[in-house]
Amino acid sequence: WVHDADTREKVRAVEAGEAPIGIVVEPSGARAYVAATKADRVQVLDLRSWEKAGSIETGDEPDGMAWAAGK
Fold first, then answer.
1. Is pTM, for the whole model, over 0.85?
2. pLDDT per position in the chain (71 positions), as tens?
């Protein structure tokens, strides 16, 4: 679910996979990566359209993520 930061009201539902427990947003704010632990995948969400943009197979139970910028 997506919540308004000020009111804390739910504003929309987004399919993020089974057991979503970790999220990281790329610096541009265009995409979010959500660890879908029970699905053994990271779901890629387009934050402009609020649609699933793809997924990345990870192996067993992804959970912690961080953004590492290249030089």
1. no
2. 788 899 999 998 888 778 888 899 999 999 999 999 999 999 999 999 989 999 999 989 998 888 888 77
Query: Who contacts 63 (Cβ-Cβ below 8 Å, separation ≥6)?
Result: 21, 22, 35, 37
Tokens for 21, please give them: 């427990």
Are residues 33 and 41 in contact, defined by beta-carbon separation less than 8 angstroms? no
DSSP 19-34: SEEEEEE-TTSSEEEE
Q: Answer yes or no: are the C-beta atoms of 62 and 40 closer than 8 Å.
A: yes
